Amino acid sequence: MNLFSKITACAMLSGACLAAHASVITVPDSALVSSNGYYTDTIDGGIGAVVVTTGGGNAANVGNPNGRNDDGFRGAISLGFTLNFFGQDYTSFYINNNGNISFNGGISAFTPNGPQGAPQPIISPFFADVDTRGGNSGVVHLRTDVADEVIVTWDNVGYYNSHDNLTNSFQLVLRGPGYTIPSGEGAIGFFYGDMQWETGDASSGQNGFGGTPAAVGFGDGQSNGEVLQGSTENGISHIVNHTHIWFDQNLTPVPPTDLPEPMPLALLGLGLAALLVSRKRAS
What we know:
By secondary structure, the protein is mainly beta. It has one domain. About 10% of the residues lie in helices and about 35% in strands. The chain has 3 helices and 15 strands. The chain has helices at about 5-10, 235-240, 265-280; strands at about 25, 35, 50, 55, 70-85, 90-95, 100, 120-125, 140-145, 150-160, 165-175, 190-195, 215-220, 225-230, 245. A hairpin with a 3-residue loop joins strand 6 and strand 7. It starts with a helix and ends with a helix.
């Protein structure tokens, strides 16, 4: 039974699925694929416009035109398609500064309790205390120019409290049912570049580590969900560093497209020799 089937069956039991019996699936970190950057590095168009937050915490910097923020969010933003997530249909979403997007409402929480413990349905490529107020920090970007595809990028972002000595770069790709998905890709993608920190100061971290580290995964807002192995544990930044992972519409990891193994040099030489002989005889 896939994740959606489990969650839907659970929801139909008229309250029988309490938090104590939450369905939480763990994805092995072996499903991650080594890579060097964003999905948008492989296509034209860049990472999109700066996200200016209009809600959330730290009101003094909410709405900063340069996108610098701590604990804010932006939404509701049209998806441009209908997304079925944990058995519910959504047509809009919220971008949360702290490394995730959500549905039904924004999330200003900065210390993850695992994505499945978030108060709203959530997709978390890296739910942690992102703080982009430092001068050397990048900000959050949104790209929606491709039909049936939304791309959110936390580009070289710092951590709380306004620290920019270490930065993280990660990206979420979200696709609608009308998108024709190439082989080896999926409906949802998490992409990671340099991942140099995993905890903010207010999450009991020191210099970006310790305390409660980042969460990676999905949640339905009712304690059910799916998390990557190592989520909310020390070392999660190292686990996802320079990797990516695709999920299908059932949140099942998509294995990378199998490529043919390189031909051994000796066999390659024999093949070339045979080709030359056949061409000589034909001439």
